[in-house]
């Protein structure tokens, strides 16, 4: 039998989860309603008498599939690129002894503090001169957002690996590169997994850089495509909510599929043995 305190705690947790999940449920139900019932007297009704997938059908006849493809390609390329660079950089900062490594970590983190509005101008001018607008080269400035946090996450994981394992491998004749790829990298895999997933989700949801650098409709990412679901005098909220559901599914699937690795990566870097 559960005690009263346990029952109250369970009720409080259930209520808290309901509050968190309810907006997602409401968005999904709204995407099934006719446009006329999203506003007005019937707006607060949870279910409609005319539920349908009409907004989804309209979306798939538009640009949303192409936008999802662009988001998937850009997010994947950026994740692979950022995770690779972050792994090498974090290993150097955490394991190698050189002058100014602490200052380097602080500088790397400081770069993530700059608001995008400050750096978007120079980046745009550079892209225009190089002819890189409306292309997948947008993955390069995305590293400005994702790389500092990924390095910070991985530094804690590399620092946690016992140095004795690395020293014994070197004594057995292994090179620095082989030690890194064969011993250090597999042990740091939970942290690398966490950094990769956080990078993917961050890039998938990025809006400002994509809107500025890839202004052509054919190169829009999913968040930008959603912002253009409007007419001259109105916003198509039914399509917006339907697109929100579609765009959320990939990130939700990734989190559910790799939730053990995410938790393992976060706790492994936070707990000191």
Task: List its salient traits.
273 residues; mainly alpha; MetI-like fold; disordered C terminus
Description:
There is one protein chain. The protein contains 13 helices and no strands. By secondary structure, the chain is mostly helical. The chain has a single domain, classed as MetI-like fold (Orthogonal Bundle). Helix 3 (64-95) runs parallel beside helix 6 (139-160), helix 7 runs antiparallel to helix 8 and helix 9 (189-204) packs across helix 13 (259-270).
Count of the domains: 1
Number of helices: 13
CATH level 3 topology: MetI-like fold
Mean pLDDT: 85
Helix share of residues? over 70%
Structure summarized in a few sentences:
With 273 residues, the chain is an all-alpha fold.
Topology:
Elements: H1 4-30, H2 54-60, H3 64-95, H4 101-111, H5 116-130, H6 139-160, H7 163-171, H8 176-187, H9 189-204, H10 208-213, H11 222-227, H12 237-257, H13 259-270
Helix pairs in contact: 1-12, 2-12, 3-6, 3-9, 4-6, 6-9, 6-13, 7-8, 9-13
